[in-house]
Structures are given as C-alpha cells and as structure tokens.
Amino acid sequence: MTIDMAAYERDHPTWCPGCGDFGVLKALQKALANLRIAPYETVLVSGIGCSGKITTYFGGYGLHTTHGRTLPAATGIKMANRALTVIAAGGDGDGYGIGVGHLIHACRRNIDVTYIVMDNGVYGNTKGQTAPTSPLGFASSSTPYGSIDVPIAPLALAVASGATYVAQAVSSQVDLLAGLVEGGIKHPGFSLINVFSPCVTYDKARTYRWWKDHIRLAEDIGHDPHDFTQAVALLNREDLQPVGLIFQKDSPPLFERLPQFPVSPLVSLPPIAEDPYRVFSRYFEPYPAYTQ
Fold this sequence. Notes:
Strand order of the largest sheet: 2-1-3-4-8-7-10-9
CATH class: Alpha Beta
Oligomer: single chain
Low-confidence stretches: none
Largest sheet: 8 strands, mixed
CATH superfamily: Thiamin diphosphate (ThDP)-binding fold, Pyr/PP domains
Strand content: 15-25%
Mean pLDDT: 90
Radius of gyration: 20 Å
C-alpha cells in the first residue's frame, strides 16, 4: 500500500472559500503521510462546528462526537487499542468552551492523544457569535457592543494543567504545522496544538495578513521549549503570539501508570465468563508510587 497524502483524502471539503480549516486538513494529511502511518491505523475524532466536518474529508477512520466530548471519546478509543494513532480535532468553542473541563483532565492524565484545535475566535457554524477566544471588544451578533469577557489563554492553561507537548501555528503555515503535528504524534503523551484558523466570513479583523504581522517563531527569539519557566513567560507576552513548539517534557503517559493494562486490544481479550471485578483485577494493579 502506498502511503501518501492522497491516501488520506476523501470527498471534497466544502468549508467557506478561504477558511483556515483547509490548511489544517492539509497539514494533518501531510504529517501522517510523512510518518507513513496507514489510514486503517488512524482514528480522527472531531467535535461540533465547522471544524467538526474534518472527519468527513479525512481518509482514515473517523468519529464525529457531540459538542465538547471529543477528548473523552478519543481517550476511550486509545484505551481500547493502543496500537491506533488517535487524533482529536475541534474548534475553540468545542475545546475551550463546553469541552474545557475535559481538556484540563486530558492534560493532567497525559493521555497519548494529539489534540488539534482550530481556533478562529468565533462560532462560525452558528453565524459568528463571540467565542471563548474572541478578543475584548469583539463585536458580533451576540455582543453587538463588543465582548466584555477576557479571552481564555488555552496554551497557558494547558501548560499549567500538565500538558507535555504544546505547540501553535497559523493554518496558512502548512509545513510548520505538519511538522508540529508529526512531533505531537510521536510524543508519548498528551499533545495540544492550537491553530489560528481565520474565519474569513465572520471575522474581518484577524485575517491572514493580521496574523502574519503579529506572530513570531519561538525559536527565532531564542526560546527553549524544554524550560517550563520560559514557556510560561512566553505565553504571557502581550506584544506577540508565538508559533512553533512552545513546551515539551518527558513524563509517563497514562498507560505507563497502569502497569498491568494489557497491551493487546481489548477486543482480543477472552470473553468475561466470571465476575468482571475478579477478571479485571488481574490487569489493573495499584500504581507503584501508592503501594503500601
């Protein structure tokens, strides 16, 4: 089987012409082709909104979940079959609004899932209302006099919550984004990749040109992504938006903290013919750090 970008293409994307999500899909397809991961070894889990349509255009397995529940579904799939490459994708409303609680717990559990968030700062699928990452003063149908809410800082939240791979790019930076997705997939633990994906229909301010003028590649300003203090300081700067790898550290992923969790897919285990607690107690033992 030839593994190239064409292997991950299905149907023709129908986002608005110029939507940043086109670039995200292309970067994801490029990353998987570069890693030579077969489509049948990959599951893409998406949420609700414009970004949620990405599974429709993706050549691997896909699961379109309910609003804000992308990460719980992705966690379950990875737990059931660790051999699969599990990627979650959604928008800022899905991931940083209704789903933000799941994001925090995915970070602290360090599940081996790569989460790509298409952050355009609006609820584009429902006609451009103010979203969790909309800037102060953003005027929309839900805030006609300008938003008075301080926007969420997703990467700072993720770093503080224990995420072990945090990166950022603009959707037009396909090569940079593809490299960051590759790094996230290879990273043994939870990876959050925030992507500024301009909504050309409902946000006429933060355009591709605007982002080009406001971003800086982290490595160009001497940033060390393995330094927690530097990462926090960089994410708190108000004069620029960093892109590239922001933070990465080695930490045991969730499965290594379940030492008796079976490596083989759960479907291959023998049927449960006795008390389930007695069966699963053979696979799950207390984490060594808490053993008396």
